[in-house]
Amino acid sequence: MGLRRAAAWALAVLITAVAVPLLVWELGQAAKDMGANGGDGWLSKAAVGSYSLTLGSTPLGQGEQTPTTQRKSGIAGRLAPFTAGSLSALDIFCAPEEEETHTGREIPTPLPSEEVLSAIPYKNDETAQDGLISRYTFTDGDSGQFITLDGGSQVRNCTEYDNDYLLKTSREKPDLSPIGDSDEPLVLIYHTHATESFERVEREHYDSAFSCKTTERDMSIISVGDEICKSLEAQGISCLHDTLVHDYPSYDAAYDSSRATVSELLEQYPSIKIVLDIHRDGIERDTGERLAPYCEIDGQGAAQIMIIACAGDENGDVPKHLENFRLACALQEQCEKDYPDFCRPVLFDYRFYNQDLSTGSLLIEVGAQGNSIDEVRRAGKVLGEEIAILMHNA
After folding, report:
1. What are the tens digits of pLDDT across the range 143-164?
2. Could you tell me the pTM of the whole model?
3. Is residue 345 part of a domain?
4. What pLDDT score was predicted for residue 46?
5. What is the 3-state secondary structure (H, E, C) of the chain?
6. Which residue range(s) make up the domain with 41?
7. Which of 169, 212, 341, 349 is least surrounded by CB atoms within 10 angstroms?
8. Based on the domain organization, do 7 and 125 belong to the same domain?
9. Closest C-alpha among 208, 204, 54, 50 to residue 132
10. Based on the structure, what is the number of domains in the chain?
């Protein structure tokens, strides 16, 4: 009897020794798959060994969409569940509204970028560990505000327009046929906030003393415009790049300043079909964590972009805003075809941004303050290539 008990006990120990590790391994694989698909449940954390960050106390509301988190070795910021204080998952799809302060005072004359290179030095302590930077891939939304276009990309509709009507409108192609001499510029790139800047390198923390602004051109949003124009020119599309610094020394009147410049250039060059105000986003949770919109293109890290089309606001009307909207959708679909993760959903909202000046006017956010300069330049290069393809196929 004792021998049988001993044999049974030995068999139980043997089964346990084999079965339990196998079960743990299976759970780990399942959790890893869940993580790759954006899963952030407790099982995923326990099995994969990810850690939790204290990001606030407000839970993600029912029905809100959590963008897929990057879970790749070497990429900063494996994010915890979306509890970002007062910042909801829907809010984060939407760029903070750019300041459009109209002072009523005389508009200051913008200065050439070459003349103010040392005005705001790039002072960024890359050894500082004051705040967290997380790379974050924005994916599709699933609330009623999001419209899925025929090619699979999305628009976030923050207006009173009916979604079905906007989907139908998105199928109408914008008029991008050139006017007059083909050597005349077809695309105008400018920067209302030319001092917006980035991290010098990809890193996991930022220097809280850094203002994220500089007049040093090689570290500012102007260098992204340079990449867009180089790509356009390489594809035979003539591009005009306005590098005047509209937000220094006066930030308040930046949109008034850029409006005057763009109006003058459009009068001088009626050939221009597309007018793009290139910015970078500023995405920061109430905990101070910064999110850097991120994707991979041809195996290299790049910033995601977001196209904004305005339907007008209390400061003014955009009479032909649906023509701008059609261009936004056409460019979004072109990018989706070649690089599905490159674009965040188009934002169609009651904003202004001087988009009444011309059909073909859009504002594009390239990355955010947590992205590295290489990531946003790479995004600028790709954006220029995709605009050129769109224009050649018009």
Report:
1. 899 999 999 999 999 999 999 9
2. 0.77
3. yes
4. 24
5. CHHHHHHHHHHHHHHHHHHHHHHHHHHHHHHHHHHHCCCCCHHHHHHHCCCCCCCCCCCCCCCCCCCCCCCCCCCCCCCCCCCECCECHHHHCCCCCCCCCCCCCCCCCCEEHHHCCCCCCCCCCCCCCCEEEEEECCCCCCCCCEEECCCCCEEEECCCCCHHHHHHHHCCCCCCCCCCCCCCCCEEEECCCCCEECECCCCCEECCCCCCECCCHHHEHHHHHHHHHHHHHHCCCCEEECCEECCCCCCCCHHHHHHHHHHHHHHHCCCCCEEEEEEEECCECCCCCEEEEEEEECCEEEECEEEEEECCECCECCCCHHHHHHHHHHHHHHHHHHCCCCECCEEEECCCCCCCCCCCEEEEEEEECCCEHHHHHHHHHHHHHHHHHHHHCC
6. 2-48
7. 169
8. no
9. 204
10. 2
Residue-wise pLDDT for 219-242, tens only, equals 999 999 999 999 999 999 999 999
Let me know if residue 55 belongs to a domain.
Answer: no
Per-residue pLDDT tens over the stretch 239-292 = 999 999 999 998 888 999 999 999 999 999 999 999 999 999 999 998 999 999
Is there a single domain that holds both residue 315 and residue 166?
A: yes
Token pair of 96, please?
């903070």
Strands 274-281 and 361-368: parallel
Nearest Cα to Cα of residue 134 among 86, 53, 204: 204
Q: How many CB atoms lie within 10 A of CB 131?
A: 18
Does residue 60 lie in a domain region?
no
Phi, psi of 114 (to 5 degrees): -65, -25
- Do residues 41 and 173 both lie within one domain? no
Whether 365 is in a domain gets the answer yes
Q: Does 270 lie in the same domain as 179?
A: yes
User: CB–CB of 83/55 below 8 Å?
Assistant: yes
Say if residue 220 is in the same domain as residue 348. Answer: yes
- The enclosing domain of 361 has a CATH number of 3.40.630.40
Res. 90: pLDDT tops 80: no
Q: Are residues 256 and 342 in the same domain?
A: yes
Residue 325 and residue 205 share a domain: yes
pLDDT tens-digit profile of 175-190? 998 765 568 999 999 9
Report d(CA 229, CA 303) in Å as an integer.
Answer: 17
